[in-house]
């Protein structure tokens, strides 16, 4: 009987060992499935983040290109305006062009008697005009130059803010 009791104990121990091993296998398989699912989820999240990063990079690149094109356009406008202003200043300096103002011949406070008619070589029905001193004309051109430059800079700033705000 002792032999049978020992055999039972050994059998129970073997049965417990087999049950324990089967549970360990099942638990290991479950852990592997969970690990694979987690790896797949992380891979999908990583791909989504990479896609989002690529979209943001494309947006940034498009904005940089648009701003660069705008900068080039405004630089051309500024260079053109400066060239035109320099040409006008040169023409004023060489007496090729003279600035003049209209004179109100009916204004008694004007203090100068400017004839309402022009010389024989001019237009007969033209209004009376007075020529400006070249130094004053240069100052007026300088003021208009500053105004033109300010307007070009303002348009550049507005275009930049509009592009960035989108």
Could you describe the 3D structure shown?
The protein is mostly helical and 166 residues long. 75% of the residues lie in helices and 4% in strands. It contains two helices and two strands. It has helices at 2-93, 134-165, and strands spanning 100-102, 129-131. The chain has a two-stranded antiparallel sheet. Helix 1 (2-93) runs antiparallel to helix 2.
Whole-Å distance between the termini?
92 Å
- Number of strand segments: 2
Alpha plus pi helix count:
2
Please mark out the parts with pLDDT under 50 across 5 or more consecutive residues, or reply none. 116-122
- Cα-atom radius of gyration: 45 Å
Largest sheet, described in full? Answer: 2 strands, antiparallel
| Helix-strand sequence | HEEH
Arithmetic mean of pLDDT: 83
Q: What is the 3D shape? A: rod-shaped
Task: Record the SSE blueprint.
Blueprint: H1 2-93, E1 100-102, E2 129-131, H2 134-165
Antiparallel strand pairs: 1-2
Features:
166 residues, mainly alpha, 2 helices, 75% helix, 4% strand
Put the structure in a nutshell.
By secondary structure, this protein is mainly alpha-helical.
């Amino acid at each position: 009987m002792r032999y049978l009791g020992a055999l039972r104990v050994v059998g129970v121990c073997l049965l417990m060992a087999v049950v324990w091993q089967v549970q360990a296998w099942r638990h290991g398989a479950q852990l592997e499935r969970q690990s694979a699912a987690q790896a797949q989820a992380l891979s999908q999240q990583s791909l989504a983040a990479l896609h989002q990063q690529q979209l943001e990079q494309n947006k940034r690149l498009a904005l940089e290109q648009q701003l660069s094109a705008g900068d080039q356009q405004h630089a051309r406008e500024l260079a053109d305006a400066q060239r035109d202003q320099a040409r006008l200043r040169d023409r004023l300096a060489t007496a090729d062009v003279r600035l003049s103002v209209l004179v109100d011949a009916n204004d008694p406070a004007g203090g100068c008697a400017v004839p309402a008619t022009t010389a024989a070589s001019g237009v007969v029905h033209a209004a009376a005009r007075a020529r400006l001193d070249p130094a004053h004309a240069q100052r007026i051109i300088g003021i208009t130059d500053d105004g033109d430059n300010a307007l070009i800079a303002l348009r550049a700033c507005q275009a930049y803010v509009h592009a960035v705000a989108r």
